[in-house]
Design goal:
Elements: H1 2-17, E1 24-26, E2 52-55, E3 61-63, H2 72-84, H3 95-109, E4 115-121, E5 127-135, E6 140-147, H4 157-176, E7 182-189, H5 205-216, E8 223-227, E9 237-241, H6 247-258, E10 264-268, H7 274-279, E11 284-288, H8 308-323
Parallel strand pairs: 6-7, 6-8, 8-11, 9-10
Antiparallel strand pairs: 1-3, 2-4, 4-5, 5-7, 9-11
Helix pairs in contact: 1-2, 2-4, 4-8, 6-8
The structure holds zinc ion.
């Protein structure tokens, strides 16, 4: 809480400095979905059913301008990252992972957003959690996800603090300016990493549960984007699951062209949460900056702040294309 107050003070101070720009009042959420009962994903231990709850707050927060060309967005993302890193590695099912979930929930709720969540059963009676918020009511459904857990041995600044802080900032922006034609669901997945040393299937728990739940409800999205490891300096890369639909990668590459950014293409195996949705037939892309030498080690302790806004620009350009 002390941290939160300090951040709020920073935000207020920044607002005052930039008084010439218009500030934005963020008030009530525009829509909420009814709570639903979820069913566990295949291959996920099913010791107890997971349920979805809705949390609504009426907090009113004044944000500084969200002009993406300023340093404000970067500063806010780096402050989010600092909080995520406070408790060390966020392995699925641990208290540190739950602290990260709490921070994400609080940050979204403080915007006045309706945060939905579901418990994710893990091996050995552990649990993780998925959290999500939805923006807009357009006919095209887009799910954008980032996992907030880490492997046991890494603080996970890049993998995947970088994706989480990008999605938190995206949520702030979509809350102010939903994109025409779209319903965008921003999901924070738990327990993506392989944590228990068992089989190759022992990972992607959060996204597998969400994918199975949406499939069972006949509510799979039209498109899926996974933002994972985008805190480095390597050019942005659109990755498809090997042998699956390329159209989401096409959108990311075209989005890059629209903002003067060359986006590389790759096909890889099941290395991020997009794989879950690709296997369910949803055009899916993993947005990545490969080549982090500290991957899955204690060296993954910082991100390159200069590239964070570029990530946001690419995602927003892609969303605009999907909404057309
Ligand atoms: Zn990752």
């Amino acid at each position: 809480m002390k941290r939160h107050l300090r951040l709020l003070a920073t935000v207020i101070a920044t607002t005052q400095i930039l008084a010439a720009c218009s500030s934005v009042d963020v008030t009530e959420p525009t829509s909420t979905s009814a709570p639903t009962t979820s069913t566990p994903a295949p291959a996920v231990p099913t010791t107890s059913p997971s349920t979805t709850t809705t949390t609504t707050t009426t907090t009113t927060t004044t944000l500084p301008p969200l002009d993406i060309t300023t340093d404000i967005a970067t500063q806010r993302m780096l402050e989010d990252l600092e909080v995520l890193l406070e408790n060390g590695p966020r392995e699925g099912g641990t208290d540190a992972e739950k602290s990260a979930a709490s921070y994400i929930r609080r940050t979204l709720a403080d915007l006045g957003l309706a945060v939905q969540s579901e418990q994710v059963p893990l091996p050995e009676d552990a649990t993780s959690e998925n959290l999500w918020v939805t923006f807009g009511d357009g006919p095209v459904q887009v799910l954008i996800g980032a996992h907030y857990d880490t492997v046991r041995t890494s603080p996970g600044a890049d993998d995947n603090g970088s994706g989480v802080i990008g999605l938190l900032e995206l949520a702030r922006r979509l809350d102010r300016d939903p994109i025409a034609g779209l319903t965008v669901t921003v999901v924070f997945f738990g327990a993506e990493e392989r944590t228990f040393g068992m089989t190759p299937e022992d990972h992607h728990y959060g996204s597998r549960l969400r994918g199975a739940t949406l499939e069972n409800a006949n509510q799979l999205p039209d498109w899926m984007i996974s933002l994972d490891m985008v805190g480095g300096t390597h050019p942005l890369t659109g990755v498809s699951l090997t042998g699956t639909d390329q159209s989401a990668v096409d959108v990311i590459v075209t989005a890059g062209e629209s903002i003067g950014l060359e986006v590389e293409r790759l096909e890889r195996g099941e290395i991020s949460d997009h794989a879950t949705f690709a296997k369910l037939g949803v055009p899916s892309v993993f947005v990545w900056r490969p080549g982090n030498p500290g991957y899955h080690t204690e060296e993954d302790a910082a991100v390159d702040g200069a590239t964070l806004v570029e990530n946001l620009k690419l995602i927003e350009a892609a969303l605009k294309i999907l909404g057309e």
